Amino acid sequence: TKTLRETLQDVIPAKQEQLKKLKTEHAQTVVGDIKVENIIGGMRGLKSMLWEASVLDPNEGIRFHGLTIPDCQKVLPPAPGGNEMTAESMLWLLMTGQVPTTEQSRQLSQELASKGQLPAFIEQLIDSLPQTLHPMTQLGIGVAALNHDSSFQSAYEKGMKKSEYWTHTYEDCINLLARLPALAARIYRNVYHPGKKIPAIDKDLDLVGNYTNLLGFGGNKNLTEYLRLYIALHGDHEGGNASAHTSHLVGSTLADPYLAYSAALYALAGPLHGLANQEVLRWQQAMQKELGDNVTHDQIKEYLWKTLKSGQVVPGYGHGVLRQADPRFIALQEFCESRPELMASSTIQLVKKTYEVAPAVLKEHGKTKNPYPNVDATSGCVLYHYGLTEYKYYTVIFGVSRALGAITQLVWSRALGLPLERPKSLSMDALEKLIKSS
Ligand code: NMX
Ligand code: MLT
Q: Over the stretch 104-126, which tens digit does the pLDDT of each residue have?
């Protein structure tokens, strides 16, 4: 049976051909137009970059190579003894467009586990950081420093051919993903449970199985399964989201994958993006503290208005592309509903009740183009219930996950020879001039 790298090697020529055809036959074909609102409005809706692994439809949500989330849940192999799709099987799908066999997915788990040990200097570097430094800042530092061993960087220095770019990028990307659990877990241990011994990587476990173990939740099967689903679901959300786009931009300079992904993590660390993960829980807990348990719909409504009137956003609601409830949110809600212990949790009940009230309030408020929940509206609350209560850590888990999509595109960008990203900017004066002349 073929490895991920061999499978990828097989599918690359057809994609290279597809791109060549697009370039030669359609370079001048017009597929949209640019309005002033796109230029001043954060490029919303502008179709202007290639991204292979997934496409986001505003109403239907994400598809990974054409597969919806329920499709993926049906066909992607779980870990031994588990039900949820693994990070490895999602990565395989993202990279190759194919569904791996259970054996292929297991083989990839073994490869990742065998490469997962952190270099000693990275352990020392992370251990030297103050406990008070935000876990996301620490993660970005660790990922950037892993480029000490970058295969791409050293081959580039030696003058490698362009046709070899993707192979070295691939090697770095797999090493990066393999090392993320140990890095992310070390940060968690240092910040929240210093002094406890961190177990070794288990060669028989999948990436998330190892991650949970290293975090210190090894016996917690519920959390492990939840994290498998979480990490597969957050893996990719097409290319325009801030973290994926950052990775793509930095990667386009031929900075190695560690530097590109480190930059992406700092985009993810903003509250309008991945940090919403922690903000939702903070907001929900403040509501619970103020209103107590068994909150009514009317009380939630009032609390939502209080948040909005104070000029803050309702975290976990709204989206730059989606115009319906995020199917990732729905998948996590279904996970909750299949588990009585979660449905008994007052935090999870609060998420559900908020969902019953918030869209109408946000519609009445009249600002957001999407009054429905995104994935962050629920993801952290389940972590909290299963014992991972330190919410400042939540975006780190998102950061482990988002690597799946980012590294996939880094490899494809190099295999397809995509150029340096460099859009044209305008000053307001230049824009006015352009408007007058058009
Ligand atoms: N609560 C209150 N106001 C909102 C919300 C919200 N949840 N969402 C959007 N708005 C406001 C937004 O601030 C803007 O106001 P103004 O005109 O004063 O600048 C207006 O509605 C129009 O914004 P949109 O065009 O609907 O949204 P945009 O595409 O600019 O931003 C988000 C998308 C996701 C940044 C925005 O909806 C938001 O801030 N949501 C809350 C934070 C959040 O949940 N982020 C996580 C996104 C998912 N992720 O994981 O990355
Ligand atoms: C994501 O998963 O990246 C978020 O939903 C934000 C986005 O897609 O813009």
A: 999 999 999 999 999 999 999 99
Q: Is 237 in the pocket of ligand 2 (CB under 6 A)?
A: yes
DSSP code string of 372-383: SB-THHHHHHHH
Ligand located closest to 245 CA: 2
Q: What are the pLDDT digits (tens) for 237-260?
A: 999 999 999 999 999 999 999 999
Rg of the chain taking only CA atoms, in angstroms:
22
Cα–Cα distances (Å) from 246 to 97, 147, 212, in that order, read 23, 17, 28
Model confidence over 16-74: pLDDT tens digits? 999 999 999 999 999 999 999 999 999 999 999 999 999 999 999 999 999 999 999 99
- The yes-or-no verdict on residue 277 having pLDDT over 90 is no
Query: Any idea what DSSP says for residue 98?
Result: S
Q: Which residues pair with 64 in a beta bridge?
A: 54, 67
Q: Characterize 148-163 residue by residue with b for buried, 16 or more Cβ atoms within 10 angstroms of its Cβ, and e for exposed.
A: ebbbbbebeeeeeeee
Type and span of the H or E element at 56: strand 54-57
Q: Are residues 216 and 349 in the same domain?
A: no
Residue 426 lies in a domain: no
The answer on 344 and 207 residing in a single domain is no
* CB count in 10 Å sphere of residue 262: 25
The DSSP call for residue 317 is: B
216 shares its domain with 286: no
Ligand 1 pocket, mutate which of 317, 354, 355 (most atoms under 8 A from CB):
317
Our answer on whether the CB atom of 246 is closer than 6 Å to any ligand 2 atom is no
CATH number of the domain at 79, please: 1.10.580.10
To the question of pTM greater than 0.90 for the whole model, the response is yes
What number is the average pLDDT over the span 158-165?
97
Strand partners, 62: 56
424 domain-assigned: no
Q: Is 62 among the domain residues?
A: yes
- Phi/psi at 373 (nearest 5 deg)? -75, 145
